[in-house]
Amino acid sequence: MIFLVVVALVSLSILVHEAGHALAARLCGLQVPVFSLGFGKPLYAFRLGETEYRIGWLPLGGFVQLPTREDFAVFETTCVFEDLTLSRRLAILLAGPLVSLVLATALFPLGMWVGRLVPDYYNRPARVGAVKAHSPVEGRLQPGDRLVAVNGVPVATWREANRLAVLNRNCNLTVQKTDGSPVRLDLGESCGLGLEPLGVLPDWGGLIVAAVETGSLAERLGLGPGDRIVAAGKRRAPLRHPEQLERMAQRDTGGGRPLQLWLADGRTLAWMPTAADEGADWQREVGVRLRPPVTLVRFGLFEGLAQGIEQAALVGRLVLRG
Is pLDDT at 70 greater than 80 in this prediction? Predict the structure, then answer.
């Protein structure tokens, strides 16, 4: 079902994108001999007026065929793409992306009205939950540190900090350490994709069990969907991100003693990590999928529209920046 929904949404975006090119071409006086949704041999085709509409077997894109000098005689047209002014050619080329952006802006308020699940940490102070190994910030940040500014711009939440890190290739972080001392980290050109690719992982505020595989180690331990793991280890260290749990498992592998997991309902589980539980796929090996605490967020029509315009502007800036 999810696959069909994804295919439908992708097909809609392709259809609107190519329709933008086709409409602009016709407004500029060009014929549109072929309008294809999908590539490859047509599964279905029909002609309406001067245009043949196709559905290709490979739904990975689409195209609008425009008459050029090379096929001037084939389409028996008096106007080809090369004869248009530069401004009209640019208008045809840019019409597709522009219409796609308008569609996304228009649909975003609908999605916000229906509602979406937003991680709680998005709108909380930008605290570090864990630091990725071998990342630019390893050894410079610690769990519990708080980001207070990005490029000198104060930030109150993780969402604000991450947005600024996405928009700036060169950035520096102003951090308040757990002891209250301020530190500035100059990350050079390593920004531009957000905080997590830099190795700065958010403070989830607890690990929620989203799913447990039948017959897995996680099920045998007694974990179930909805359980909240809040701490681990003998010292009952608060768990802020799954990366912490992975580090603890690596440390205790082969030690002969189980790793204590403390749940919000008061239970304590004993996990004996093995070598198979290490690495990036440790959740799959254990048979559990973790997620942060989330909240269903809904916006009204106008607030959703404002959010849609903001997101469209963000995407536009990223596209123009390359």
Answer: no
